[in-house]
Each structure stands twice: as structure tokens, then as C-alpha cells.
Amino acid sequence: MIRAAPLQREASAEPLFSEYLRDSQPNPEERLQELEQREMLEDALQKLPVEMRRALCKSRDYSLKEAASALGLRVSTLKARLHRGRRALMVHLKRETQVRRKPAANRGSLLCPASEERLCARESPANE
């Protein structure tokens, strides 16, 4: 049996209608999520030892050889610090996301005891 080749859509200069509807800016929820992720990453980076933090930052902008030279390290030492730093970041971020995903009842209240007491007093049907 001979199968027909799939039809190729003609490339046109005119964009699809759905592309007109797509908003190029992220919505507020996406922006908030991105901000929270950035804060978590910055917090995790601050908790790393200085040597690991420097290794991670230098390797981002330079090749391994250039970064090792700039830090006064051998390439193998830089690779080890990068591996340990990335692993430490991953462990910290996993732990942080697990804490944030727990229900509020398990984490304890975010309010101070006095504020929580006033809020509960207002919601209590006994006071009506």
C-alpha cells in the first residue's frame, strides 16, 4: 500500500490568528512564580561556601579553562567545586520547595499569636 506524503503547510508571511492573540508579557501569576524562584535560588546561592559560589559564577561567563585560570585553580579542582556546588544547590532547592508545598496547617501559622487570636475570634460563631 502506498501512503501519501503528509501535506506540508505553506510558509506564509502572515502569522496565524492565534499568534495575534498571544500576549508576549507573562501574566502576574507567572511573574510572581518567577520572582519566588529567583529569590529561592539567590537564597540557596548565599548559603553555599564562597569557593563554590565563585566557581559557579565564573563558570557561567567563561569556559572551564578561563574560569579556572581566573580563580587560580586547576580545571579538575574547578570541576569538583562546580559538581559539589550544583549538588548542594539542588538539595537546598528540593528541601525548600518541599517546605513550601506542605499545607499551612502542618507548617504552623504565619501570623503572630496575637493576630491569629484576633482573626480566630472574629471567625468564631460563638461570638455572634
Q: Estimate what percentage of residues fall within beta strands.
A: under 5%
- The number of helical elements comes to 7
How do the helices and strands follow one another from N- to C-terminus? HHHHHHH
N- and C-termini, Cα separation: 80 Å
* Mean pLDDT rating: 76
Radius of gyration: 26 Å
Regarding quaternary structure, what we see is single chain
Percent of residues in helices comes to 55-70%
- The CATH homologous superfamily of the domain at 27-103 is named Winged helix-like DNA-binding domain superfamily/Winged helix DNA-binding domain
| CATH-defined topology of the domain at 27-103 | Arc Repressor Mutant, subunit A
CATH class of the domain at 27-103: Mainly Alpha
- The number of strands is 0
Largest sheet: none
Give structural notes.
The protein is mainly alpha-helical. The chain has a domain of 77 residues: Arc Repressor Mutant, subunit A (Orthogonal Bundle). The protein is built from seven helices and no strands. It is extended. The chain starts with 16 loop residues before the first helix and ends in a 5-residue tail after the last helix. About 5% of the residues have low confidence.
